[in-house]
Please model this.
Amino acid sequence: MLNEEKIYMPVPQQMGRGDRMGRGPYEKSGIIEDTGLPPHKTVEERFEVLFPVEDITNDSGRVIDRKLLANELDVKVELWYLPYGTRNSDPFLWREAAKTISISTEGR
Amino acid sequence: MKSNSLWIVLALALVLVPFLALAGDEGTGRDKTIAAKQGKANTIAELVAMYDSSSCEECHLDIHADWLKSAHSRSIFGTGRTAATFRTTILNGCMEWPYSGVKEFEEVKVEHLQGCTKCHLPQLADATDEVAQEMMNTILTFMKAYQEGDTETFEKNKATLLSLNINCLVCHNRNAIVHKWTDGYPQQGVVYGSMEGEHPSDDFPAMAKSPIMKESILCGQCHGLGPNFELENPTQCATAYGSYLWAYKAEGGRETCQECHMHKTGLGHNMQSYRDPGMIEAALDFDVEAYGMHWRDGSLVSPKAVVKVAMTNKTGHSIPDG
Model:
């Protein structure tokens, strides 16, 4: 349903100039921004995931109701350390958490 | 006549310059470093012999075994990818830059590798350009052998690359002193650590205290402030030490690199970071909270899940390094 990624890292500047990011150490000089996790600070993220629904429409096509298709969602959050920026090369899974989120089926 | 006078002045200058260089006190003791005493290495084998710390293993077995597991013991080879990055650096860097003086791999000199070897092999500064060439050839041969599945050539060249590393003598001699005019130049035959006195070794008969052996600046020599401005074409690999200084120490952090990476984790000379389960566990708090709600979107209800993640970096530097 949703697969969202956030990247935390110092973003190196290419050759210490402009807005272009450098990749190899030989062309990195400076930092454009640092989205890495700063020491002794807490970084908070909030994600929203919509439950699957089926819209019910009237004869003119207007959505008049919404039918919940499942009242439980399995959510998995993973924190990966990717030394080469991709899970295809030497990835390290640092943390993972799984939650099942329920929603009430009663009420209007 | 004018021409003759000029020659005399030049001749005097040639005689005087070396004399003046030796006459001052600057660099006192520089002539007793390993590099000064042994002269520049002309081959990889000579460079390895020059900084050979294999005799340390005889008494410091556990420390050596720990070190062997660390990235320091394979600082040129790495996982294989580190060695390959040397090729990329020359190919995508030096060969593309109009003023580097490198158009072919055969033109690579020590200075062209220093962007990497300043930290991955600091002792390369004590070698001739022939060693830079030999190193480059070894990397190219190793990579070709890998692509062609030539196991014998691959292993032979891999072994050569593994012989180049950050060993005992790099941290406990060559790089053991940062402020050389203040504390003296590291001397050949001396092991620098936390004690002084005799050291039962033929090659290293003396121990001396390094005032920075337990200080973060020792590690900071390589673990990065940002651009390496001392190079003619600055590079930037690690920035962890810069982050440590300005985002950790500046905010009141008190621990040193060694306290976390060697002592608290019990890793000793097997200094690890993002690969080690213990370091990963100690690095951060990770909390996930989740709940559902019926969001009312005008007259319609859109049920949604909210997932909140809180990450607290407990280390002394930004995560990740880079």
Notes: Residues 194 and 209 of chain B are 5 Å apart (CA to CA). Strands of chain B lie at 190-193, 197-198, 206-209, 284-297, 300-313. Chain B touches chain A through 60 residues (CB under 8 Å).
